[in-house]
């Protein structure tokens, strides 16, 4: 893109003047942020509208990514990077005596997602645009994204995330493309003049879906794709008659009910959310997006739907948008008058499904009474899908009633959305090799046996543009200096760094960069936590959602164990460590919140204990989100990826650490398996039970945590300290349930269901090896470099290329 500093400056100043009546001296930082963003946006209008024309062309197939979450983070800097004008814009602001970092920090994160699943969607969009593929996102424009986390007295407290407070310069409202979405009502049937039976839904509650488009800018290629997010409105606004009768609350009731749909992101990373409102959200954006796609399709092919799957493919990100399958059936049958079989052909050739979890509690099931009331016609269609599917199963496995029972989409009063997804799509993929194997051989075994051709693996990836080029410019320059800049769009180039593993000067430089990033993080920690941390200590980081299966508890138990050892022997040899955590707990997840309290309390005690002479520091970073993540990944030495084997589908945090030169301490779970395969087991610290061992122990019920504890007095002491008041008597109510769940099992669970006790001693051994390895600076640097050089596989460009070739068939 052509960039002229003076022109850009003029546009910014002009916007400040025309939009706000300000000059650069009087403008607020928000006004400057807005004007700079809009100035950048104005430079891509023509590329963007060119791109949109392709949506209406016969020969271009479009991929659509349907996702209830897009965890985009900040847009401005990333867009300036991809446009190749970041340095230029910095100079412009510098000329105007405005601090770029301050303007950057003005932007709120678009936190429209919970964690990995939503961030994956964001990385995919970046890769799609950069690879020049026709791929667009569809989702919900939540008014409030992921809650803001504050730590008060050591506890998580949640505050609303009003990210649109200052408006978003990167969204463009497209009122003219609004569509109507229908809820409730009753199903009516009638026969047409040819004697054909039809269905329609009468007396529905109508909600208007208004689209806002965000540009997704490819890196250095003038390509701008679209993320279209829907906002819910009441078609009639508020009711003036009621208002005039002074019935103020009643007058806005309908309006509020409609707007509730896009009001707030469900703050639940995992676990069921049996809320009707959540189903309303899912149907709302699925229906609106399908109408949008069909409208465009019909301008080319009219009522001929035989080409629909040649022109469109829709990837369903987990089960959240799976309601789109019966919705497309409804539109095709009730509104376009296709017969069932033809409509089913269209659907099952258009949709593909990604599974993100094997945790049983996270598989979505909708109670029949909720779905049949909210979406009566959709429920009828689901029943008919199931009726036909069951007869197919019965003919495939005559007499195997158990299997039919297990595979029934509707059973025991619920609709199983994952089953509907597999029945109604042509592709089912897991998100890491191990995960896909577990799906095929265990969780989805029946389904794999019936439809082996549908199953495939697409190991997740991350975009190196945000997670390296933008968030670690120091390391990015080092890489470019050594191998050129092709890696920015072809990440397999990273392997060319490998010869530097034997170049002491380069390794020293690499460690100096790491040190710089650690110093920057230390300043952030000083400012936000008031804690002094030593950049020469090991920065050991675990950042991810707080969940028992991710085992932050294992990490904090190890810290307690180290602390006990130092207290016993203050002069022991010890490699100083800074343990850093960042994690949000789902608001209703009590155990997760207790674990946060444990981490913060252990931190308070240790950080203030003069006796241990700063050997350990423990820091909990508040409000972990994309922007904070961008500061943490580059500053890490040791990446904690310690989930119970078989539980983490893939992980992507593990990949962000790797590209930034952290060494992994972890279990053979999710994509860790592939990370170790690439980097070599000697360049990671691997410990713990393997997934198949856990399967075995589970099925034979042979695990007895109390017996394990009786032979590990160090861990016994740690667990005793939860309830004996060692970390304060005021917290026993929070810590006792943790101890109970490990020792005795609570809420119908087995004791220690995540094998924290079982894996503890191996974890400590691995940790000790990591400490000793760190003392040899050059060999640590070499491990770090090899991790970076071998991270090429984990670019989302690779993942998206595989989706494009193997599932979507787009080029
Ligand atoms: C990458 C990322 C995640 C996912 O982390 P995992 O370790 O894979 O669970 C979650 N939240 C944010 C903000 C991220 O950037």
Bound molecules: pyridoxal-5'-phosphate
CATH superfamily of the largest domain: Glycogen Phosphorylase B
| Low-pLDDT stretches | none
Number of domains: 3
Quick one: biggest sheet?
10 strands, mixed
How many individual β-strands? 25
Task: Classify the beta-strand content into a percent band.
Answer: 15-25%
Average pLDDT over all residues: 97
First-residue to last-residue Cα separation? 24 Å
Question: What is the CATH class of the largest domain?
Answer: Alpha Beta
* Structure class: alpha/beta
Proper CATH architecture of the largest domain: 3-Layer(aba) Sandwich
Shape: globular
CATH topology of the largest domain: Rossmann fold
The DSSP helix count reads: 35
The helix fraction, in percent, is 40-55%
Rg, Å, rounded:
27 Å
Organism: Thiospirochaeta perfilievii
Catalytic activity: [(1->4)-alpha-D-glucosyl](n) + phosphate = [(1->4)-alpha-D-glucosyl](n-1) + alpha-D-glucose 1-phosphate
Modified residues (N6-(pyridoxal phosphate)lysine): 656
Subcellular location: Cytoplasm
Structural descriptors:
single chain; alpha/beta; Rossmann fold; 10-stranded mixed sheet; 6-stranded parallel sheet; 25 strands; binds pyridoxal-5'-phosphate
């Amino acid at each position: 893109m052509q960039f002229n500093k003076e022109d850009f400056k003029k546009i910014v100043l002009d916007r400040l003047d025309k939009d706000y009546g300000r000059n650069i001296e009087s403008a607020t930082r928000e006004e400057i942020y807005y004007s700079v963003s809009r100035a950048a946006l104005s430079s891509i209008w023509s590329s963007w509208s060119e791109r949109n024309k392709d949506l209406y062309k016969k020969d271009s197939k479009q991929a659509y990514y349907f996702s209830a979450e897009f965890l985009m983070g900040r847009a401005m800097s990333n867009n300036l990077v991809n446009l190749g004008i970041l340095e230029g814009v910095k100079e412009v602001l510098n000329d105007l005596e405005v601090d770029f970092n301050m303007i950057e920090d003005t932007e709120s994160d678009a936190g429209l997602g919970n964690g990995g699943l939503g961030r994956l969607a964001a990385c995919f969009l970046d890769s799609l645009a950069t690879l020049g593929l026709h791929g667009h996102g569809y989702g919900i424009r939540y008014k409030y994204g992921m809650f803001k986390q504050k730590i008060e007295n050591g506890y998580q407290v949640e505050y609303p995330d009003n990210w649109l407070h200052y408006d978003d310069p990167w969204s463009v409202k497209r009122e003219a493309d609004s569509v109507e979405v229908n809820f409730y009502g009753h199903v009516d049937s009638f026969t047409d003049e040819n004697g054909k039976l039809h269905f329609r839904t009468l007396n529905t509650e109508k909600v208007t879906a208004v689209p806002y488009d965000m540009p997704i800018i490819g890196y250095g290629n003038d390509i701008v794709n679209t993320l279209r997010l829907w906002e819910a409105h009441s078609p009639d606004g508020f009711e003036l008659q009621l208002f005039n009768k002074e019935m103020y609350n009643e007058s806005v009731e309908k309006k509020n009910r409609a707007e509730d749909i896009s009001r707030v992101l469900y703050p639940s990373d995992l676990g069921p959310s049996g809320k009707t409102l959540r189903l309303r959200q899912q149907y709302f954006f699925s229906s609106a997006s399908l109408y949008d796609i069909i409208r465009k399709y019909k301008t080319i092919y009219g009522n001929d739907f035989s080409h629909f799957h040649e022109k469109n493919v829709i990837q369903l990100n987990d089960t959240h948008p799976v309601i789109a399958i019966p919705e497309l059936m409804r539109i095709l049958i009730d509104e376009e008058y296709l017969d069932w079989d033809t409509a089913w052909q269209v659907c099952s050739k258009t949709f593909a499904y990604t599974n993100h979890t094997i945790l049983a509690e996270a598989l979505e099931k909708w109670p029949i009474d909720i779905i049949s009331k909210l979406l009566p016609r959709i429920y009828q269609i689901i029943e008919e899908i199931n009726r036909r599917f069951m007869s197919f199963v019965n003919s495939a496995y005559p007499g195997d009633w158990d299997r039919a029972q297990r595979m029934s989409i509707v059973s025991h009063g619920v609709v199983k959305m994952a089953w509907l997804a597999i029945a109604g799509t042509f592709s089912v993929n897991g998100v890491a090799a191990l995960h896909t194997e577990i799906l095929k051989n265990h969780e989805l075994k029946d389904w794999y046996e019936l439809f082996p051709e549908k199953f495939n693996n697409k190991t997740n990836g991350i975009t190196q543009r945000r997670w390296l080029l933008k968030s670690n410019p120091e390391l990015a320059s080092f890489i470019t200096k050594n191998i050129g800049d092709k890696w920015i769009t072809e990440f397999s180039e990273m392997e060319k760094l490998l010869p530097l593993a034997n170049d002491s000067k380069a390794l020293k430089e690499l460690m100096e960069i790491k040190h710089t990033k650690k110093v920057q993080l230390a300043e952030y920690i000083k400012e936000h936590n008031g804690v002094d941390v030593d950049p020469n200590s090991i920065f050991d980081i675990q950042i991810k959602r707080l969940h028992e299966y991710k085992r932050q508890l294992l990490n904090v138990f190890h810290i307690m164990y180290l602390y006990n050892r130092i207290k016993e022997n203050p002069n022991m040899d010890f490699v100083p460590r800074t343990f850093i955590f960042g994690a949000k707990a789902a608001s209703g997840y009590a155990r997760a919140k207790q674990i946060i309290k444990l981490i913060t309390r252990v931190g308070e005690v240790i950080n203030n204990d003069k006796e241990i002479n700063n050997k350990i520091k423990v820091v909990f970073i508040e409000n972990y989100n994309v922007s904070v993540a961008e500061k943490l990944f580059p500053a890490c030495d040791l990446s904690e990826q310690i989930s119970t084997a078989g539980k983490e589908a893939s992980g992507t945090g593990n990949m962000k650490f790797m590209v930034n030169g952290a060494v992994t301490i972890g279990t053979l779970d999710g994509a860790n398996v592939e990370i170790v395969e690439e980097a070599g087991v000697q360049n990671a610290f691997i410990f713990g039970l393997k997934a198949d061992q856990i399967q075995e122990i589970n099925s034979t019920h042979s695990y007895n945590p109390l017996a394990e504890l009786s032979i590990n007095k160090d861990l016994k002491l740690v667990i005793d300290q939860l309830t004996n008041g060692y970390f304060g008597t005021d917290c026993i109510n929070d810590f006792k349930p943790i101890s109970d769940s490990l020792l005795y099992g609570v809420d119908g669970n087995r004791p220690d269901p995540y094998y924290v006790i079982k894996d503890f001693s191996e974890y400590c051994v691995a940790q000790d090896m990591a400490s000793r390895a760190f003392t040899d600076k050059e060999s640590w640097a070499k491990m770090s470099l090899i991790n970076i050089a071998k991270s090429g596989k984990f670019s989302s460009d690779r993942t998206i290329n595989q989706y494009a070739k193997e599932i979507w068939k787009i080029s």
